[in-house]
Prior knowledge:
A: mainly beta; six-stranded mixed beta sheet; five-stranded antiparallel beta sheet; B: mainly beta; 0% helix
Amino acid sequence: xxxxxxxxxxFNVPEGATVAFNCTYSNSASQSFFWxxxxxxxxxxxxxxxxxxxxxxxxxTAQLNRASQYISLLIRxxxxxxxxxxxxxxxxxxxxxxxxxxxxxxxx
Amino acid sequence: NAGVTQxxxxxxxxxxQSMTLQCAQDMNHEYMSWYRxxxxxxxxxxxYSVGAGITxxxxxxxxxxxxxxxxxxxxxxxxxxxxxxxxxxxCASGQPQxxxxxxxxxxL
Lengths: 108, 108
């Protein structure tokens, strides 16, 4: 079992839709949590950090549930430009551990 | 700002050859790391460094060496290239991590 697991998708949604990504991690000693975005095998870019209190950045909302070891990302009013792979990332003992990524395709 | 600079961007090697992938950052980050990304596998940590003179192994260190003589530079050496090392290699620095553009490496 991988330490960070995501549904690989692809998620195909129309413009304007709300889409939710889920991620689970297996090690309760994990310290920090992030969502990254990756376009077409280019370099990953930080989308947002994730906190237990939840945090929002425009159309994006991230949530962490430490008890369930579960991380989520919600994208509202999706745009064509949101099409990418979304990577769930956990930091533990000096190492970043990446999930496989969830592919999102937003269609007109 | 240059951020994280990787060279070369593309490279083709023959089995058994050695080479060094270069990585430099100008953000004075202590933490640097190398990842490889293969189709369907996500990013996997090869080696990382928490500061000059300190390196440690990640998930897939075999066949690779690193050194960190300065804060700015973190080269990755392939000792004897094998076809299984064909991949996209990303260098990253800081926490959260900022990634370079990647090196696309093919080994024949």
